[in-house]
Design a protein that fits this description.
Blueprint: E1 2-5, H1 10-22, E2 26-29, E3 47-50, H2 58-66, E4 71-74, H3 84-90, E5 93-95, H4 102-118, H5 120-128, E6 146-150, H6 154-165, E7 169-173, H7 179-184, E8 188-189, H8 192-198, E9 201-204, E10 229-232, H9 241-249, E11 255-258, H10 280-286, E12 291-293, H11 302-320
Parallel strand pairs: 1-2, 1-3, 3-4, 4-5, 6-7, 6-9, 7-8, 9-10, 10-11, 11-12
Length: 332
């Protein structure tokens, strides 16, 4: 079976190669992102493997179907870049990696919080300049604070457990309540407005869909306390960036940690150091001293990369051998 792997990054190729050999897959790696202009590169392949930045909209899916591609294996948990309804209409099999390392993302979220609160980056640079003064480096104790976790799937649960271990009180919000988790960590499910207004730390861990797009928006962002931290390692579209910038301009939020950005598709995973950025919203966000942005790297651990490669290629192997355990990772 022939597989074309789009948007292959150098950091993942060795893991993909390892599992391709294990499952005896004939796989061709391509660094090019999939879109309607290059979709013809999928001709002659039974299956393609895709990264979250690849375009899997209606037009691309129709072309893939015409070229005889039978299956698309996503190297991600999220699928907001995919027209799922069209894929189902065309009868194409789509699989994903629903869980690869929730702890990796939860731990990165904590890292963003600690860097913002204790100003590690400023302290590091100050000491490198032989400046050992402490003015401007004051933080607050995380212990005893109220943490609001929006989205209590595996990642949200992992983050909630970490914060419980740090001595925090937990408020939770999700359409589907994890009552066992709430009981175990003595947390309480509340509506979003209550969570935003009562939390000292707010962390977003929900998927992006029509009901969660702009979950944080101009209508509810002012519920967030000026002394609160807002963290997003979920999806960029969960926050209305313009509303967040307005909040920051008014100095009504203590700190913002983002591993994702609303318009990251043409920015993240690329080197812009020679040309600079033209994204004015991102540049404005980066201008605030209390905003810390990382380039969608929360997942980026050895364990997670290996799990992503293993599951995505295992899905391909199971599809072509009609194995039953494909079902748990199947979207269509």
């Amino acid at each position: 079976m022939k597989v074309k792997c789009f948007s292959t990054h150098s950091f993942e190729e060795r893991y993909l190669t390892k599992w391709a050999q294990t499952y005896k897959l004939d796989i061709d790696f391509l660094s090019t992102s999939l879109n309607k202009d290059v979709v013809s590169l999928a001709k002659g392949y039974d299956c393609i493997s895709c990264w979250p930045s690849d375009d899997l909209g209606k037009e691309v899916l129709e072309s893939l179907h015409e070229f005889g591609v039978k299956m698309i294996s996503l190297r991600s948990a999220g699928f907001s870049h995919l027209d799922l309804a069209k894929a189902k209409e065309l009868g194409m099999t789509i699989t994903r990696v629903p869980s690869y390392s929730p702890e990796a993302i939860a731990e990165h979220t904590l890292g963003l919080l600690m860097c913002l609160n204790r100003k590690y980056l400023k302290a590091f640079q100050r000491v490198r300049d032989f400046n050992f003064t402490l003015e401007g480096l004051e933080g607050v104790n995380i212990h005893g604070k109220t943490v609001g976790v929006v989205g209590t799937g595996q990642i949200g649960e992992a983050f909630a457990r970490i914060m419980k271990g740090m001595g925090c009180s937990l408020l939770l919000n999700d359409k589907v309540e994890n009552t066992e988790l709430a009981k175990e960590i003595d947390a309480k499910y509340v509506d979003l407005e209550t969570l935003l207004s009562q939390s000292d730390i707010i962390s977003l861990h929900c998927p992006l869909n029509e009901s969660t797009r702009y979950l944080i928006n101009s209508k509810n962002i002012d519920l967030i306390k000026p002394s609160a931290f807002l963290l997003n390692t979920g999806r960029g579209g969960l926050i209305d960036t313009k509303a967040l910038i307005d909040k920051l301009k008014k100095r009504e939020i203590k700190g913002v940690g983002l591993d994702v950005y609303e318009h990251e598709e043409n920015v993240f995973f690329k080197d812009h150091s020679d040309m600079g950025l033209s994204d004015e919203l991102l540049l404005r966000l980066m201008s605030f001293p209390n905003v810390l942005i990382t380039s969608h790297q929360a997942f980026f651990t050895k364990e997670a990369l290996d799990n992503i490669a293993k599951t995505s290629l295992e899905n391909i192997n199971n599809f072509f051998h009609q194995k039953e355990n494909l079902k748990e990772n199947r979207l269509s």
